Amino acid sequence: MIYCVEDDASIREIEIYTLKSCGFEAEGFETGTDFFNVLKKEKPELVILDIMLPDMDGIDLLKQLKKDPSVSDIPIILASAKGSEYDKIQGLDVGADDYLAKPFGMMEMVSRVRAVLRRAGARPQRVIENSEITIDEDKHEVRVYNDQIQLTLKEYELLSMLMRHPGIVFTRDQLLNDIWGSEYDGETRTIDVHIRTLRQKLGDAGRHIDTVRGVGYRYREDV
After folding, report:
1. How far is the C-alpha of 104 from the C-alpha of 190, rounded, in Å?
2. CB atoms < 10 A from the CB of 148, how many?
3. CA-based angle 82:64:62, to the nearest 5?
4. Distance of alpha carbon 210 from alpha carbon 213, whole angstroms
5. Burial, 162: exposed, middle or buried (Cβ in 10 Å; 0-12, 13-18, 19+)?
6. Could you report the per-residue pLDDT of 106-134, keeping only the tens digit for each?
7. N or C: which end of the chain has fewer CB within 10 A?
8. CB–CB of 114/137 below 8 Å?
């Protein structure tokens, strides 16, 4: 279980949706008080903690967690629009395991969650298997007809995102934002170039990556 402590409902909901789509259990809390009330009943694997909360400062909340031996070992990723070097250093010095500066892409969040959980010795990642393609997320391997193929990081993240949501159409802007991050100022043509090379590397199985003209791309199993 991953807890998302975030007062902005829209951000909290997309965090939870993305984590669940990637195979995690997730629950959200608007305030530090709500979070602490549930923490007494169930200890999560990891917490994504916003610094700016309506009822308490996230740094103070983090300090309370680290002082309590029963929950001090829970990995914490701080998330905040406060992007100064001081805020980041302060959070890490207090005991945070990682830091996300808003705005951040959802795939960046998931990648950081996985990295922190691996360092903490948490559960291995699941295997995504659709049609002829298999992704072993723990080993970061992609196999087509059981033969391993080599992908760049962005090709891997594109394929992983599409395969997690078969049939769902993603616009080029969505893919850019989630994989390259919202601060990336490149053109959407970047997506087309990566999709083309990804299809080439997948060979015949590349047919499952479907172009939806004027919109974007989706993963289809029924082709």
Report:
1. 19
2. 11
3. 25
4. 9
5. buried
6. 988 998 898 888 887 755 456 888 889 99
7. C
8. yes
